[in-house]
Design a protein that fits this description.
The complex is a heterodimer of chains A (478) and B (546). Chain A is built from 19 helices and two strands. Chain A is mainly α. A two-stranded antiparallel ribbon of chain A has the order 1-2. In chain A, a hairpin with a 3-residue loop joins strand 1 and strand 2. In chain A, helix 4 packs antiparallel against helix 5 and helix 9 crosses helix 12. The radius of gyration of chain A is 21 Å and the shape is globular. The two termini of chain A are 21 Å apart. Chain B contains 22 helices and two strands. In chain B, helix 12 runs parallel beside helix 18. Chain B is globular and about 75 Å long. Classes of the chains: A mainly alpha (478), B mainly alpha (546). Chains A and B meet through helix 16, helix 17 and helix 19 of A and helix 5, helix 6 and helix 7 of B.
Chain lengths: 478, 546
């Protein structure tokens, strides 16, 4: 195999942009306005171009990073996540007086880590990517240094995250002990030969790695950090981490379990079944009781993790494709929703209680309409993308014979509609005597949200092309 | 390529809604303009449905005006639409009621009129889509998409408890329909295992042999979704809330069209797709329907609120429709379809009249009224005609459907017909009693003394309703003619699938061999004759019917 660097070009672009942002920040005079976000856009666009060029080429670098279509699809999703995050971060940075360069640099490094995680084919590289991503996100969570909530959230996230990383690493160690390798393909073939006689070591390895992933994708019962971290972080960061981290972690989760550990399916499918059911149920039921919009959406994103787990456990072609399509639509929708929250954030008032949304329709009809689109799509109403994504997941489950799980899935999605509609009720139907003050909507952020909403309709009405991409993605590696 | 008329039925209201988005200005400036645009668009759609009817080949029971395009080929999903006689008339009904609903709330919507018009148009589009879809996936999309505009209509422009009602409405309907989604997915997967391709094509799925055991679950999933929509007792509790709290336009569309989607779904999907399960469950459905007929009527009788009374009367009337469908013979199903149309017209009319009264007095309590006959004679005359239509007086629309349904039910199982017939009497009781308390006697409340009579706009609303009610009562064959071949086709489909394979377990009375089927066709024709005879001697038939 000739060494080739092609496969790492997308993340190299993003990393370079991150370094450039850091350098630019250090040369910036205090008070000088510098379009640092522009650097990020350039880097992400570079990554996008290289992703398109790498499509269908199955490039690998060092035998550790594979830019197969699966990884590239997730990379594409992460690029969308990155671009949208850049677009909605501006107002937050200005209002909270955050250090712009650091913020963007951390965000770009995290994105690079996510991309590496989605394309890595070696457990150790996955671990490295996980740490690159996580460390940057820990800091981003606590970037409002003068806010106790933000710091607390960051600290909690860091402690629990470090703990789960240890589990993950331990699981890798056991796997290495079993197979003598950390490369997924070798693990897969060795596991296949051992699959007949499951050993306690296998269970330990599988269990520890599941814990590590379950923490990152916020699956119940490893979700405790999520509401606090999502609430404490600035909304733009929450949007970023609720979608980017989830996309990267799920990509690795799918790659590891549906290729390397596929032979042991009998040992892990029941565990994931229970995780999926618990995640869907707890995520939606707990979401009903929240009064803070951010916490509500935190639980909602836990619930969406459950649907992704449902697709994962289904494990068939539909399931794998469904994970990809779901991640993309969920990413666009959820960033959109957090983008609206970010735009409503006020210097002296966070406006993050459900009741703060009363009368938004009268004050900012455009934002209210956009929020409605995002929420209805999260709730899975046609003709929004969320419906197609859920339909894809459920058809995978029905096809795999997981009818019970599919029934839990559809019923919890009805429950989730209840709390999404609570926000809609507030925005449209609740008169208020003391309307909350909403800041003006900056053009870039508003435009980005509008684009997200249009994408949601596009994916909901004409999903064919993207569905075909998703289907093509899974055929390359599994 | 011929003009895609069915697509335009869906697309035109959406285009109108998008056009409305660009209407600028504050409420004062935009409202009149928005109303007019919405009205014109909905009238155009109505004209299109009439055109459709004119060009429809009534002798054929097959799907016509079919448009078919690949949509998501990887999953066998198509954009596949077409109409038969049943959906044709429901489209016409939708087209007919939407402009009336808009006109009926011309002055009662005071805030955000532009958004109101947008939601009404989007709702119309989704309703049209439900009736034309021949691809189950497409059907489900419209079915679910319809909830959102209705939710907003109730939630924003409704009365005091509107938010509660709106959320209850959307959660109930969704809870029912998501299980149907799973059943649809299961069906498509079965088609895949049988033939190697995914398909949501209704006509292909009709052909499929679904194993008995699976049929039961799938039928239950479909029937639950439709039973909630109808609403069949005991799934009806969302309906009174939604109706009472909805603005007039919402009530008219809800009662006039949306409830029919449940019964339409039973006829189009649940029964023909799962004939064996349907045969098994039909008596249970009929029991629930009969309970609904009587229970709805009894509860309607004691309602102090006119809107709630009409809402419960819908539960009762829709019970008849379900009974007719459960009978699964020509009279029953034709009667059921006829009753769907007729109920749409007369209940739509009742809600419009109640809306006019509540626009004037801002109350819907029956006790607040009394003696209106002296104050507003014309309004009361219209009220009377619509009330009689709803009761089912021969010569008006309500009679034909109920008569056919009872006939069909009688042929199937006379016990159901016997119990259901009490509903006819009860409906006369509660409607006439309400009418009497509102309109006769002295003017007890002085606020009523100076009420205005019908305004020109209200004439425009109520005259078409009454005209159609009379037309449907006098020349029912005009409407039955396109229905009949389609009903025959569905029945063939059903009887082809159902009894032949489980003859051993089925009761002889429910079996239909080809010969008996042919003789049913005869009976159906003679029944039409009998009904024509009944119509020509109305007083006699009227007495017999009561």
């Amino acid at each position: 195999m000739t060494p080739s660097l092609n496969a790492i070009v997308p993340m190299a672009c993003v990393t370079a942009a991150g370094i450039a942002a850091m350098v630019a920040e250090s040369f910036r005079d205090p008070g000088e306005r510098m379009p640092i976000a522009g650097l990020g856009v350039v880097g992400l666009l570079g990554a996008a171009v290289s992703t398109v060029l790498l499509w269908n080429h199955n490039a690998t670098s060092f035998g550790l990073v594979a830019a197969d279509n699966f990884g590239l699809f997730v990379t594409g999703t992460l690029i969308v996540v990155g671009l949208l995050t850049l677009a909605i971060s501006g107002p937050t940075i200005e209002r909270e007086r955050l250090p712009g360069g650091e913020y963007y640099a951390l965000m770009l490094f995290a994105t690079a880590g996510m991309m590496l995680m989605a394309t890595a084919t070696d457990l150790l590289v996955i671990f490295l990517a996980l740490e690159v991503m996580s460390l940057a996100v820990y800091v981003l969570t606590g970037i409002r240094r003068d806010s106790p909530a933000s710091t607390e959230a960051s600290f909690k996230y860091f402690l629990l995250g470090a703990f789960s990383s240890a589990f993950f690493l331990y699981g890798i160690a056991f796997t290495y002990g079993l197979t003598g390798s950390t490369r997924l393909d070798r693990i897969g073939s060795l596991m296949a030969s051992q699959a007949m006689s499951p050993t306690p070591m296998q269970f330990l390895a599988l269990g520890l790695i599941i814990v590590g992933f379950a923490f990152k994708v916020a699956a119940v019962p490893f979700h405790m950090w999520t509401p606090d971290a999502y609430e404490g972080a600035p909304p733009a960061v929450t949007g970023f981490m609720s979608t980017g981290v989830k996309a990267a972690a799920f990509a690795a989760f799918v790659r590891v379990f549906l290729s390397a550990f596929e032979p042991l399916r009998g040992s892990w499918s029941d565990v994931i079944w229970i995780l999926a059911a618990a995640t869907m149920i707890v995520g939606t039921v707990a979401g009903v009781t929240q009064s803070s919009v951010k916490r509500m959406l935190a639980y909602s994103s836990i619930g969406h993790g459950g649907y992704l787990l449902l697709a994962l456990v289904s494990g068939n072609d539909f399931g794998k494709g469904a994970v990809l399509f779901y991640l993309l639509t969920y990413a666009i929708t959820n960033i959109g929703a957090f983008g609206v929250i970010a735009l409503l954030d006020n210097a002296d008032r966070p406006n993050d209680q459900v009741k703060d949304y009363a009368g938004l329709w009268n004050e900012r009809p455009g934002l209210a309409a956009l929020m409605t689109v995002f929420l209805l799509s999260l709730g899975g109403f046609p003709p929004m993308a969320g419906f197609i994504a859920k339909w894809y997941v459920f058809s995978a489950a029905v096809r795999a014979g997981y009818t019970g799980l599919a029934i839990i899935g559809v019923l919890t999605s009805v429950i989730s509609v209840f709390f999404y509609l609570r926000i809609v009720v507030m925005m449209y139907m609740t008169p208020t005597d003391t309307p909350a003050q909403f800041p003006p909507v900056p053009k870039v952020a508003g435009g980005a949200l509008l684009v997200s909403a249009l994408l949601i309709f596009y994916l909901g009405v004409l999903p064919t092309r993207v569905l075909e991409w998703a289907a093509a993605s899974i055929s390359t590696i599994f | 390529m011929p003009f895609p008329i069915l697509t335009s039925l869906v697309a035109l209201p959406v285009a109108g809604a998008i056009l409305l988005l660009f209407v600028r200005g504050d409420e004062e400036q935009s409202a009149p303009f928005a109303r007019k645009i919405a009205l014109i668009v909905s009238l155009l759609v109505f004209a299109e449905t009439l055109l459709l009817w004119m060009r429809f080949d009534g002798a054929s029971g097959n799907f016509q005006f079919v448009e078919r395009h690949a949509w998501i080929p990887a999953f066998g999903i198509e954009y596949y639409v077409g109409v038969d006689g049943i959906s044709l008339l429901l489209l016409v009904l939708t087209g007919f009621l939407t402009p009336l609903a808009l006109l009926g709330s011309w002055e009662s919507v005071h805030k955000q009129t532009k958004a109101f018009c947008i939601f009404v148009l989007l709702l119309e589009s989704a309703m049209m889509g439900v009736f034309i879809s021949l691809d189950l996936f497409l059907f489900y999309i419209f079915w679910d998409a319809m909830l959102v505009p209705m939710y907003f209509l109730i939630g924003i422009w409704g009365y005091e408890r509107r938010i509660y009602a709106a959320i209850k409405f959307i959660l109930y309907t969704m809870a029912g329909s998501v299980l149907m989604l799973l059943a649809i997915l299961g069906l498509a997967y079965m088609h895949y295992t049988a033939t190697g391709v995914y398909s949501f094509d209704l006509l292909k799925l009709y052909e499929m042999q679904v194993p008995m055991h699976t049929q039961f679950w799938f039928f239950l999933a479909f029937a639950l979704a439709f039973a909630i929509k109808v609403p069949l007792f005991p799934f009806h509790t969302w309906l009174p809330d939604a109706h009472v709290e909805a603005p007039t336009a919402g009530s008219v569309i809800l009662a006039g069209v949306m409830l029919k989607m449940g019964t339409y779904g039973l006829v189009r999907f649940a029964f023909p797709l799962f004939p064996q399960a349907a045969l098994f469950f039909a008596p249970w459905l009929a029991v629930l329907a009969v309970i609904g007929i009587i229970y709805g009527a009894l509860v309607a009788m004691v309602q102090p609120d006119m809107k709630k009374l009409v809402a419960y009367s819908s539960v009762s009337h829709l019970g008849f429709v379900v009974l007719g469908i459960a009978a699964m013979n020509t009279q029953g199903v034709s009667g059921a379809v006829y009753q769907m149309l007729s109920h749409g017209v007369s209940t739509g009319g009742l809600f419009l009249i109640v809306g006019m009264l509540s626009d004037r007095r801002h109350t819907r309590q029956i006790t607040e009224y009394g003696g209106l006959k002296k104050v507003t004679p014309r309004l009361v005359a219209a009220f009377l005609l619509v009330t009689l239509a709803s009761i089912g007086l021969p010569g008006l629309n309500g009679f034909v459907g109920e008569f056919l349904i009872l006939l069909g039910a009688f042929r199937w199982d006379p016990r159901f017909a016997a119990f259901a017939a009490t509903g006819v009497i009860l409906s006369a009781t509660y409607m006439l009693w309400m009418f009497q308390r509102v309109n006769y006697g002295p003017v007890t409340n002085e606020k009523n003394a100076s009420l205005a009579d019908l305004r020109p706009r209200e004439w425009l609303v109520i005259v078409p309703i009454i005209a159609v009610a009379v037309l449907m009562g006098v020349v029912p064959n005009l409407f039955l003619r396109p229905i009949e071949p389609s009903v025959e086709r569905i029945l063939n489909q059903y009887h082809h699938g159902a009894p032949s394979r489980i003859q051993a377990s089925a009761q002889p009375s429910r079996l239909r061999s080809p010969e008996t089927q042919a003789s049913f066709g005869e009976a159906r024709r003679s029944a039409t004759g009998a009904q024509a005879a009944a119509l020509s001697s109305q007083p006699l038939a009227g007495e017999a019917g009561r």
